[in-house]
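Q: Given only this backbone (372 positions), what sequence would you predict?
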Protein backbone atom coordinates (compact mmCIF):
# COMPACT_ATOMS: atom_id res chain seq x y z
CA UNK A 1 0.00 0.00 0.00
CA UNK A 2 1.43 3.37 -0.98
CA UNK A 3 0.79 5.62 2.03
CA UNK A 4 1.21 8.77 -0.07
CA UNK A 5 -2.08 7.99 -1.75
CA UNK A 6 -4.01 7.67 1.50
CA UNK A 7 -6.15 10.61 2.57
CA UNK A 8 -6.30 11.90 6.16
CA UNK A 9 -9.06 10.45 8.31
CA UNK A 10 -12.38 12.27 7.85
CA UNK A 11 -14.35 12.89 11.03
CA UNK A 12 -17.98 14.02 11.02
CA UNK A 13 -19.23 14.75 14.54
CA UNK A 14 -22.94 15.34 14.20
CA UNK A 15 -25.60 15.89 16.85
CA UNK A 16 -26.80 12.29 16.75
CA UNK A 17 -23.85 10.29 15.35
CA UNK A 18 -20.10 10.21 14.79
CA UNK A 19 -18.68 8.96 11.48
CA UNK A 20 -15.05 8.30 10.54
CA UNK A 21 -13.88 7.27 7.09
CA UNK A 22 -10.57 7.19 5.23
CA UNK A 23 -10.11 6.96 1.46
CA UNK A 24 -7.25 5.94 -0.80
CA UNK A 25 -6.82 6.43 -4.55
CA UNK A 26 -5.59 3.30 -6.34
CA UNK A 27 -4.99 4.25 -9.99
CA UNK A 28 -8.41 5.56 -11.04
CA UNK A 29 -10.35 3.76 -8.27
CA UNK A 30 -11.16 5.12 -4.84
CA UNK A 31 -10.94 2.59 -2.04
CA UNK A 32 -12.33 2.92 1.49
CA UNK A 33 -9.46 2.08 3.84
CA UNK A 34 -11.51 2.12 7.03
CA UNK A 35 -14.91 3.33 8.24
CA UNK A 36 -16.56 3.41 11.65
CA UNK A 37 -19.57 5.09 13.20
CA UNK A 38 -21.18 5.52 16.62
CA UNK A 39 -24.61 6.72 17.76
CA UNK A 40 -24.75 9.60 20.27
CA UNK A 41 -27.43 9.27 22.95
CA UNK A 42 -29.76 12.32 22.58
CA UNK A 43 -29.89 12.61 26.39
CA UNK A 44 -26.20 13.62 26.36
CA UNK A 45 -27.13 16.96 24.79
CA UNK A 46 -28.30 18.05 28.25
CA UNK A 47 -24.80 17.52 29.67
CA UNK A 48 -22.08 19.03 27.40
CA UNK A 49 -19.24 17.63 29.51
CA UNK A 50 -20.62 14.08 29.37
CA UNK A 51 -21.27 14.43 25.64
CA UNK A 52 -17.71 15.55 25.00
CA UNK A 53 -16.35 12.68 27.10
CA UNK A 54 -18.48 10.22 25.10
CA UNK A 55 -17.28 11.63 21.77
CA UNK A 56 -13.61 11.45 22.75
CA UNK A 57 -14.01 7.90 24.08
CA UNK A 58 -15.93 6.79 20.98
CA UNK A 59 -13.29 8.19 18.61
CA UNK A 60 -10.53 6.36 20.49
CA UNK A 61 -12.51 3.11 20.33
CA UNK A 62 -13.18 3.51 16.60
CA UNK A 63 -9.48 4.13 15.97
CA UNK A 64 -8.60 0.93 17.82
CA UNK A 65 -11.29 -1.17 16.11
CA UNK A 66 -10.42 -0.30 12.50
CA UNK A 67 -7.21 -0.17 10.47
CA UNK A 68 -7.02 3.60 10.01
CA UNK A 69 -3.71 4.80 8.60
CA UNK A 70 -2.07 7.49 10.75
CA UNK A 71 -3.88 9.97 12.98
CA UNK A 72 -4.08 13.03 10.69
CA UNK A 73 -7.69 14.19 10.52
CA UNK A 74 -9.95 16.56 8.61
CA UNK A 75 -12.91 17.48 10.76
CA UNK A 76 -16.14 19.39 10.33
CA UNK A 77 -17.32 22.29 12.45
CA UNK A 78 -20.87 21.76 13.80
CA UNK A 79 -23.60 23.69 12.01
CA UNK A 80 -24.68 25.53 15.14
CA UNK A 81 -21.29 27.23 15.61
CA UNK A 82 -20.93 28.40 11.99
CA UNK A 83 -22.65 31.64 11.01
CA UNK A 84 -23.49 31.80 7.29
CA UNK A 85 -25.00 34.76 5.44
CA UNK A 86 -25.39 35.67 1.75
CA UNK A 87 -25.23 39.38 0.91
CA UNK A 88 -25.20 41.50 -2.25
CA UNK A 89 -22.53 44.16 -2.32
CA UNK A 90 -21.82 47.04 -4.67
CA UNK A 91 -18.11 46.28 -4.71
CA UNK A 92 -15.87 43.46 -5.92
CA UNK A 93 -12.77 45.01 -4.33
CA UNK A 94 -11.21 42.48 -1.93
CA UNK A 95 -10.13 45.12 0.62
CA UNK A 96 -13.59 46.69 0.69
CA UNK A 97 -15.26 43.28 1.08
CA UNK A 98 -12.88 42.44 3.92
CA UNK A 99 -13.66 45.72 5.66
CA UNK A 100 -17.42 45.21 5.26
CA UNK A 101 -17.07 41.71 6.72
CA UNK A 102 -15.10 42.94 9.74
CA UNK A 103 -17.54 45.74 10.54
CA UNK A 104 -21.09 45.12 9.29
CA UNK A 105 -21.21 41.29 9.18
CA UNK A 106 -19.30 40.70 12.40
CA UNK A 107 -21.65 43.07 14.25
CA UNK A 108 -24.74 41.24 12.94
CA UNK A 109 -23.55 37.96 14.44
CA UNK A 110 -21.98 39.37 17.59
CA UNK A 111 -18.52 38.29 16.42
CA UNK A 112 -15.28 40.05 17.35
CA UNK A 113 -13.32 40.70 14.13
CA UNK A 114 -9.94 40.85 15.89
CA UNK A 115 -10.48 37.56 17.73
CA UNK A 116 -13.00 35.37 15.91
CA UNK A 117 -12.54 33.70 12.54
CA UNK A 118 -14.22 35.41 9.56
CA UNK A 119 -14.14 34.16 5.97
CA UNK A 120 -16.01 34.82 2.75
CA UNK A 121 -16.34 33.51 -0.78
CA UNK A 122 -17.55 35.32 -3.89
CA UNK A 123 -20.44 33.47 -5.50
CA UNK A 124 -20.51 35.68 -8.60
CA UNK A 125 -22.08 38.69 -10.27
CA UNK A 126 -25.87 38.93 -9.96
CA UNK A 127 -28.69 41.24 -10.96
CA UNK A 128 -30.73 43.29 -8.50
CA UNK A 129 -33.33 44.81 -10.74
CA UNK A 130 -31.21 46.19 -13.56
CA UNK A 131 -28.17 46.78 -11.37
CA UNK A 132 -25.22 44.40 -11.22
CA UNK A 133 -24.17 43.34 -7.72
CA UNK A 134 -21.59 41.04 -6.19
CA UNK A 135 -23.04 38.01 -4.33
CA UNK A 136 -20.82 37.16 -1.37
CA UNK A 137 -21.27 34.36 1.17
CA UNK A 138 -19.85 35.10 4.61
CA UNK A 139 -18.79 32.57 7.24
CA UNK A 140 -17.94 33.21 10.87
CA UNK A 141 -17.08 31.19 13.96
CA UNK A 142 -16.17 32.23 17.49
CA UNK A 143 -12.54 31.58 18.34
CA UNK A 144 -13.48 29.83 21.61
CA UNK A 145 -15.71 27.34 19.76
CA UNK A 146 -12.92 26.70 17.28
CA UNK A 147 -10.33 26.18 20.01
CA UNK A 148 -12.67 23.85 21.91
CA UNK A 149 -13.23 21.70 18.82
CA UNK A 150 -9.50 21.42 18.13
CA UNK A 151 -8.78 20.57 21.77
CA UNK A 152 -11.35 17.77 21.62
CA UNK A 153 -9.67 16.29 18.53
CA UNK A 154 -6.28 16.37 20.21
CA UNK A 155 -7.75 14.79 23.34
CA UNK A 156 -8.98 11.96 21.11
CA UNK A 157 -5.34 11.52 19.97
CA UNK A 158 -5.90 12.92 16.51
CA UNK A 159 -3.74 15.40 14.58
CA UNK A 160 -5.96 18.10 13.00
CA UNK A 161 -4.93 18.96 9.43
CA UNK A 162 -7.68 21.44 8.67
CA UNK A 163 -11.31 22.19 9.48
CA UNK A 164 -14.18 22.28 7.04
CA UNK A 165 -17.88 23.16 6.99
CA UNK A 166 -20.94 21.06 6.26
CA UNK A 167 -21.87 22.89 3.01
CA UNK A 168 -18.42 22.50 1.41
CA UNK A 169 -18.14 18.86 2.50
CA UNK A 170 -21.57 18.08 1.09
CA UNK A 171 -20.87 19.76 -2.22
CA UNK A 172 -17.51 18.02 -2.53
CA UNK A 173 -19.11 14.61 -1.99
CA UNK A 174 -20.92 15.10 -5.30
CA UNK A 175 -17.87 16.17 -7.30
CA UNK A 176 -17.24 12.73 -8.79
CA UNK A 177 -20.66 12.80 -10.47
CA UNK A 178 -19.98 16.34 -11.75
CA UNK A 179 -16.50 15.78 -13.16
CA UNK A 180 -17.61 15.13 -16.74
CA UNK A 181 -17.03 18.06 -19.07
CA UNK A 182 -20.67 18.17 -20.18
CA UNK A 183 -21.70 18.78 -16.56
CA UNK A 184 -19.75 22.02 -16.15
CA UNK A 185 -22.91 24.16 -16.47
CA UNK A 186 -25.27 21.78 -14.67
CA UNK A 187 -27.22 23.23 -11.72
CA UNK A 188 -27.05 21.02 -8.63
CA UNK A 189 -29.36 21.23 -5.61
CA UNK A 190 -28.16 19.38 -2.53
CA UNK A 191 -30.23 19.20 0.66
CA UNK A 192 -28.91 17.69 3.88
CA UNK A 193 -31.65 16.72 6.34
CA UNK A 194 -29.73 16.62 9.59
CA UNK A 195 -30.64 16.48 13.25
CA UNK A 196 -30.83 20.23 13.99
CA UNK A 197 -30.38 21.90 10.60
CA UNK A 198 -31.47 21.40 7.03
CA UNK A 199 -28.68 22.68 4.78
CA UNK A 200 -29.46 23.73 1.20
CA UNK A 201 -26.63 24.14 -1.31
CA UNK A 202 -27.14 25.25 -4.91
CA UNK A 203 -24.24 25.12 -7.33
CA UNK A 204 -23.45 25.32 -11.01
CA UNK A 205 -20.80 22.91 -12.22
CA UNK A 206 -18.06 23.03 -9.58
CA UNK A 207 -19.08 26.47 -8.23
CA UNK A 208 -21.18 26.95 -5.10
CA UNK A 209 -23.63 29.81 -5.63
CA UNK A 210 -25.95 29.60 -2.64
CA UNK A 211 -25.92 28.20 0.92
CA UNK A 212 -28.71 28.33 3.50
CA UNK A 213 -29.01 26.68 6.90
CA UNK A 214 -32.65 26.19 7.95
CA UNK A 215 -33.24 25.51 11.68
CA UNK A 216 -35.90 22.87 10.99
CA UNK A 217 -34.74 19.25 10.90
CA UNK A 218 -35.09 15.86 12.59
CA UNK A 219 -34.96 17.10 16.18
CA UNK A 220 -37.71 19.63 15.49
CA UNK A 221 -39.94 16.96 13.89
CA UNK A 222 -39.39 14.64 16.84
CA UNK A 223 -40.41 17.39 19.27
CA UNK A 224 -43.59 17.98 17.26
CA UNK A 225 -44.49 14.28 17.45
CA UNK A 226 -43.70 14.12 21.18
CA UNK A 227 -45.88 17.16 21.89
CA UNK A 228 -48.84 15.94 19.82
CA UNK A 229 -48.79 12.38 21.18
CA UNK A 230 -47.90 13.33 24.74
CA UNK A 231 -44.79 11.14 24.90
CA UNK A 232 -41.11 11.73 25.70
CA UNK A 233 -38.82 12.87 22.85
CA UNK A 234 -36.86 9.61 23.14
CA UNK A 235 -40.07 7.63 22.56
CA UNK A 236 -41.03 9.88 19.64
CA UNK A 237 -37.61 9.35 18.04
CA UNK A 238 -38.00 5.57 18.38
CA UNK A 239 -41.49 5.74 16.87
CA UNK A 240 -40.26 7.76 13.91
CA UNK A 241 -37.40 5.30 13.43
CA UNK A 242 -39.86 2.41 13.16
CA UNK A 243 -41.91 4.29 10.57
CA UNK A 244 -38.87 4.69 8.30
CA UNK A 245 -39.46 1.13 7.15
CA UNK A 246 -42.58 1.28 4.90
CA UNK A 247 -43.07 -2.47 5.31
CA UNK A 248 -42.97 -2.34 9.10
CA UNK A 249 -46.00 -3.70 10.96
CA UNK A 250 -44.80 -2.58 14.42
CA UNK A 251 -46.89 0.61 14.35
CA UNK A 252 -50.66 0.57 13.79
CA UNK A 253 -52.30 2.70 11.12
CA UNK A 254 -53.88 5.13 13.57
CA UNK A 255 -50.52 5.94 15.19
CA UNK A 256 -48.91 6.27 11.76
CA UNK A 257 -51.49 8.90 10.76
CA UNK A 258 -51.08 10.69 14.09
CA UNK A 259 -47.30 10.94 13.60
CA UNK A 260 -47.76 12.19 10.04
CA UNK A 261 -50.28 14.83 11.15
CA UNK A 262 -47.99 15.96 13.98
CA UNK A 263 -45.14 16.62 11.54
CA UNK A 264 -47.26 18.22 8.84
CA UNK A 265 -46.96 21.89 9.88
CA UNK A 266 -43.19 21.65 10.34
CA UNK A 267 -42.81 19.86 6.99
CA UNK A 268 -44.88 22.53 5.23
CA UNK A 269 -42.72 25.25 6.77
CA UNK A 270 -39.54 23.41 5.78
CA UNK A 271 -40.84 22.90 2.23
CA UNK A 272 -41.61 26.61 1.90
CA UNK A 273 -38.13 27.52 3.12
CA UNK A 274 -36.49 25.15 0.62
CA UNK A 275 -38.72 26.46 -2.19
CA UNK A 276 -37.70 30.03 -1.29
CA UNK A 277 -34.07 28.96 -1.76
CA UNK A 278 -34.92 27.86 -5.31
CA UNK A 279 -36.72 31.14 -5.96
CA UNK A 280 -33.80 33.17 -4.58
CA UNK A 281 -31.42 31.33 -6.90
CA UNK A 282 -33.66 31.80 -9.95
CA UNK A 283 -34.11 35.55 -9.32
CA UNK A 284 -30.56 36.29 -8.18
CA UNK A 285 -28.64 34.34 -10.80
CA UNK A 286 -31.29 34.50 -13.55
CA UNK A 287 -31.22 30.72 -13.73
CA UNK A 288 -33.92 28.16 -14.36
CA UNK A 289 -35.76 26.56 -11.46
CA UNK A 290 -33.98 23.25 -10.65
CA UNK A 291 -35.71 20.10 -11.89
CA UNK A 292 -34.19 17.79 -9.29
CA UNK A 293 -32.87 17.88 -5.73
CA UNK A 294 -30.55 15.33 -4.14
CA UNK A 295 -31.18 14.67 -0.44
CA UNK A 296 -28.66 13.42 2.11
CA UNK A 297 -28.64 12.97 5.89
CA UNK A 298 -30.29 10.47 8.21
CA UNK A 299 -33.74 12.07 7.92
CA UNK A 300 -33.81 11.39 4.17
CA UNK A 301 -34.81 7.79 4.91
CA UNK A 302 -38.15 8.73 6.44
CA UNK A 303 -40.81 7.92 3.83
CA UNK A 304 -43.46 10.21 5.36
CA UNK A 305 -41.13 13.22 5.26
CA UNK A 306 -39.79 12.57 1.76
CA UNK A 307 -43.25 11.97 0.25
CA UNK A 308 -44.48 15.22 1.78
CA UNK A 309 -41.47 17.12 0.40
CA UNK A 310 -42.13 15.69 -3.07
CA UNK A 311 -45.71 16.96 -2.95
CA UNK A 312 -44.82 20.41 -1.61
CA UNK A 313 -41.72 21.08 -3.72
CA UNK A 314 -43.07 19.76 -7.01
CA UNK A 315 -39.76 18.46 -8.36
CA UNK A 316 -37.88 15.19 -8.67
CA UNK A 317 -36.18 14.03 -5.49
CA UNK A 318 -33.55 11.35 -5.19
CA UNK A 319 -31.51 10.05 -2.28
CA UNK A 320 -27.76 10.63 -2.35
CA UNK A 321 -25.37 7.69 -2.74
CA UNK A 322 -22.02 9.19 -1.66
CA UNK A 323 -20.21 5.83 -1.60
CA UNK A 324 -21.44 4.65 -4.98
CA UNK A 325 -18.56 3.39 -7.12
CA UNK A 326 -16.13 3.21 -4.20
CA UNK A 327 -14.28 -0.02 -3.40
CA UNK A 328 -15.81 -1.16 -0.08
CA UNK A 329 -14.30 -4.66 0.07
CA UNK A 330 -11.87 -3.70 2.84
CA UNK A 331 -14.58 -2.46 5.22
CA UNK A 332 -17.71 -4.07 6.59
CA UNK A 333 -20.25 -1.29 6.27
CA UNK A 334 -23.76 -2.59 6.94
CA UNK A 335 -25.88 -1.47 3.98
CA UNK A 336 -28.88 -3.73 4.62
CA UNK A 337 -31.20 -1.17 6.24
CA UNK A 338 -29.99 1.95 4.33
CA UNK A 339 -28.41 0.83 1.03
CA UNK A 340 -27.90 4.40 -0.27
CA UNK A 341 -25.72 5.28 2.78
CA UNK A 342 -26.74 8.93 2.30
CA UNK A 343 -25.97 9.74 5.94
CA UNK A 344 -22.27 9.40 5.01
CA UNK A 345 -22.33 12.33 2.56
CA UNK A 346 -20.62 14.86 4.87
CA UNK A 347 -17.96 12.37 6.01
CA UNK A 348 -17.23 11.35 2.41
CA UNK A 349 -16.96 15.01 1.38
CA UNK A 350 -14.44 15.60 4.16
CA UNK A 351 -12.47 12.52 3.10
CA UNK A 352 -12.31 13.80 -0.50
CA UNK A 353 -10.74 17.12 0.44
CA UNK A 354 -7.56 17.46 -1.62
CA UNK A 355 -8.24 14.20 -3.47
CA UNK A 356 -7.18 14.33 -7.11
CA UNK A 357 -10.58 14.20 -8.82
CA UNK A 358 -10.27 14.61 -12.59
CA UNK A 359 -11.40 17.99 -13.93
CA UNK A 360 -12.34 19.23 -10.47
CA UNK A 361 -11.42 22.89 -10.58
CA UNK A 362 -13.31 23.95 -7.48
CA UNK A 363 -11.12 26.42 -5.57
CA UNK A 364 -13.64 27.03 -2.80
CA UNK A 365 -11.95 24.42 -0.58
CA UNK A 366 -9.60 27.17 0.49
CA UNK A 367 -12.22 29.25 2.35
CA UNK A 368 -11.47 27.66 5.73
CA UNK A 369 -8.03 26.28 4.89
CA UNK A 370 -6.25 28.72 7.20
CA UNK A 371 -8.44 28.04 10.22
CA UNK A 372 -6.21 25.36 11.73
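A: Predicted residues:
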Amino acid sequence: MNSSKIQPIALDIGHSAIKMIQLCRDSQAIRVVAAQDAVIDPALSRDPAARREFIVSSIRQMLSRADFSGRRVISCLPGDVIKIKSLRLDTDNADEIEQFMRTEVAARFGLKPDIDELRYMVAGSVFQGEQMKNEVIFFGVERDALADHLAMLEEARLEPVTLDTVPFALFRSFQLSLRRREDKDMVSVLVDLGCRYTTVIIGKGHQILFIKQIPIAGEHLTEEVAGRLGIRPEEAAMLRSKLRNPESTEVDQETTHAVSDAMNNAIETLSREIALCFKYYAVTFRGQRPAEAVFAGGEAYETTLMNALRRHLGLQIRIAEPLRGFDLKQVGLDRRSNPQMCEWAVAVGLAMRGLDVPENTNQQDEVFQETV
